[in-house]
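**Entry details**
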Amino acid sequence: MILAKGKVQFGYDLVHAKTEVDPVAKKIIVSNAKVVINSTDFNYEYLFEKDTFLNPITPNDRNHMLDQIKSKAIAQLKPVQFEKRVKEKTDELLAQLKGFTSWTIEVRS
């Protein structure tokens, strides 16, 4: 039995986003920005592990198990569920950026 705890960072996939620049209005519009998983960091705690003499758990077995746990955990996360939170954090960052530039940046998903 393995307990997995972790952190997942969500953000926008800007590779496929479109950018429009309006120099007159000093505005940048980023559209079609989809929320994706940017990074993951998992920690594992072994609560119980049955390692017998006849059937030992090898390091490769353990790594394979941990990869499966991580991929299943990530598969259960839906970026759409986190769109609101990513938008809020982005708006906070863009509000702070306004103190450094007269340009306006708008992100649309």
In short: The mean pLDDT is 87. The helical segments are 59-76, 83-97. Residues 55 and 92 are 54 Å apart (CA to CA). The first strand starts at residue 2 and ends at 13.
